[in-house]
Design brief:
single chain, 406 residues, four-stranded mixed β-sheet, 11 helices, flat
């Protein structure tokens, strides 16, 4: 039996966290290629460490990489490798890294991207009477809950908002002592399955040398307390003894200089903060033909529309795929005992409203666009849809049709 009174915790990491730096670089490459070829295939992995940025993976992109057309350059169109490097350096600069141990301008850059396997392409590409197949096997989940306005778990929602506020204050020079690397963690008390207040709050943030004394640490704590007070609902702050700001002490060395970063290591931060299952596949660095990304987006879209339609207060969707096969192998709807209609009725209705093949998902959500860098920090879900098609999976435009269908 589900508990109605409990505590739950989620964490977030800032745009300057080394793993998030890697995610943003990988999605910079995705956007670079989709802007030139909407049908591009990209699987880009990034490693960042002290003064080093390395790219690896597989690509296929008209006007960027064609081994037959450019045999003397290993497949690369003239000048493109330099353009990718400049785009990557621009992303690191926008994050704010100008440190001795990691600087956007002076870090060593290596690009080891190469052509996509023909064997993968033949099983996945659309041809003749064959529909485009999934790029890999796997399971994907989506989740929505009515405990916040954006239909996201409150613990993750507030964890993201705390760090977004701190990043905005850093970029806008509201404070002069914050550096890019930071983490947050929010523990909330739930009564009758609704969040009612925080029982613990944690922020660890990289800071300048000016705070490396007792007075500086007090200044940092006082600042973080104002962020908590502004972000959390009134009356939600826990006791001072349960608020932790840089609990290990000084945090001057951070980012890729303090800890290596890799693409795809913050999949729970990217999704639902542990409040829902995860299929295990990362998003960043992958073009939308990869169902790890696109099917997870459609799962969120469907779950959010179920909740927005009033058919349930909470909903989890699971889809599964086989490599080279277009249609999903299974679809599961779980409304966690909060539904107003049976789950099997919703399961039957969803494929009639949205074609859940890789191509059908991309078409419905308009995913073949350079819209992914913006997703790579502060969560892929719970964001506002953008006019250019970004975060299209956050729309609730299916709600009325769904209600009518069940």
């Amino acid at each position: 039996m589900a508990r109605s009174n409990f505590t739950f915790t989620s964490e977030s990491v800032s745009e300057g966290h080394p793993d998030k730096v890697a995610d943003q670089i990988s999605d910079t490459v995705v956007d670079f290629m989709l802007a030139r070829d909407p049908q591009a295939r990209i699987a880009c992995e990034t490693l960042v460490t002290t003064q080093r940025i390395w790219l690896a993976g597989e690509i296929r992109c008209k006007g960027v990489f064609d081994l037959a057309a450019n045999p003397d350059t290993g497949g690369w169109a003239p000048g493109v490798r330099d353009q990718i490097e400049q785009a990557v350096r621009g992303t690191v600069r926008a994050i704010g890294y100008e440190q001795e141990g990691f600087h956007w301008q002076t870090a060593t850059f290596e690009n080891h991207l190469h052509g996509q396997s023909d064997h993968i392409a033949q099983g996945v590409d659309e041809s003749g009477n064959k529909d485009e197949g999934a790029g890999d096997q796997g399971i994907m989940f989506g989740y929505a809950t009515d405990e916040t306005e954006g239909l996201m778990p409150a613990t993750l929602y507030y964890s993201h908002r705390i760090l977004e506020r701190m990043a905005a204050d850093r970029h806008n020079r509201v404070v002069d002592f914050l550096e890019p690397d930071a983490k947050s963690q929010v523990t909330l008390n739930y009564e009758y399955e609704r969040p009612v207040g925080a029982s613990a709050l944690v922020v660890s943030t990289q800071h300048s040398a000016s705070l490396s004394n007792d007075a500086g640490q007090k200044r940092l704590r006082d600042y973080v307390m104002t962020v908590f007070e502004d972000i959390l609902p009134k009356g939600w702050l826990p006791a001072q003894s349960s608020i932790y700001v840089n609990p290990t002490g000084l945090f001057e060395i951070g980012g890729p200089d303090g800890d290596a970063g890799l693409t795809g290591r913050k999949i729970i931060v990217d999704t639902y903060g542990g409040a829902a299952p995860h299929g295990g596949g990362a998003f960043s660095g992958k073009d939308p033909t990869k169902v790890d990304r696109s099917a997870a987006y459609i799962c969120r879209y469907l779950a959010k529309n179920i909740v927005a339609s009033g058919l349930a207060r909470r909903a989890t969707i699971q889809l599964s795929y086989a490599i080279g096969v277009a249609e999903p192998l299974s679809i599961l709807v779980d409304t966690h005992g909060t539904g107003t209609v049976s789950e099997d009725r919703i399961e039957k209705a969803l494929p009639q409203l949205v074609r859940l093949t890789p191509k059908g998902i991309r078409t419905h959500l308009g995913l073949n666009r350079p819209i992914y860098l913006r997703t790579a920090a502060y969560g892929h879900f719970g964001r506002q849809p953008d006019a250019d098609g970004g975060f299209s999976w956050e729309k609730t435009d299916l709600a009325e049709a769904l209600k009518a269908a069940v």
